[in-house]
Amino acid sequence: MPPFPLPPRLRRAAWGLAGVMAVALAFGAWGLWRVVAPAGEDVQARLQASETAREGLEARVDDLSQQVATLGRSDQISRDANLDLQRTLAERDEEIAGLRADVAFYERLVGATAQRRGLSVHAIRFEPMGDTAWHFTSTLTQNLNRGAVSRGVLRVAIEGTRDGKREVLSWALLRQDEGAPGVAYSFKYFQQVEDDIFLPEGFEPVRVRVQLQPESGRALEQGFTWADATRGSPPNAETGAEADTGAAPEPG
């Protein structure tokens, strides 16, 4: 059965209401889009700006890290150069001190006011070569007979203790050879002679005795503490009976 027909007036009112509701819905949708769409665009813009800023910060951090690394390398290079310079200056100071000591030595030996002395041991120095081996260098001098040549042999003996007992090691024991000859010398004013010795295990050296036997005349013996002999030129030495120089005119 067909529905009851609306009167024309009510039908026109219903259509008008429907139109108003449609317009209201359309306006509401447009307003919602206006509210939401700009917000979405703003968020996207902010995200993009944040990403750009982050990339900029990372680039800045990388740049600063590179600068720090460069400065660190430059600082290390400067430190190494400074250490090299200090070592060079220390070596030069040591060299100058050695040259001054040599000049003073020559002045005392051959200068116009030098004290005349016969054959003597100016200094002796021992340097370790291993557990028991030592190398010594001894400086011999004489300026009593100028122009004359002193000749002879040098031997060393060392006093010390082993197992709590005093012991003296002769040249033969130090050289580990019963027939070991002495170290020959021949000079006008000074000469350095050197050789090697061997100390037995457990031996504690205390004093060094340097024995000079000229070709003619009496022997000479001088003593040095082991501490001085291993430190370098001693400030003073224990001097025994001074030998005749045993000097002979220089050939020719």
Structural commentary:
By secondary structure, this protein is α+β, with helices and mostly antiparallel strands. It has 2 domains: 8-114; 116-249, Immunoglobulin-like (Sandwich). Helices cover 45% and strands 29% of the residues. The protein is built from 3 helices and 10 strands. Strands 3, 4, 5, 7, 8, 9 and 10 form a 7-stranded antiparallel β-sheet that branches. A 3-stranded antiparallel β-sheet has the order 1-2-6. The protein is rod-shaped, with a radius of gyration of 51 Å. Residues 239-252 have low confidence and may be disordered. Residues 237-252 have a biased composition (Low complexity).
CATH architecture of the largest domain: Sandwich
- The top-level CATH class of the largest domain is Mainly Beta
User: Which regions are unreliable across 5 or more consecutive residues at pLDDT < 50?
Assistant: 239-252
Please bin the fraction of helical residues: 40-55%
Q: What is the overall pLDDT average?
A: 78
Give a brief outline of the structure.
This protein is an alpha+beta fold and 252 residues long.
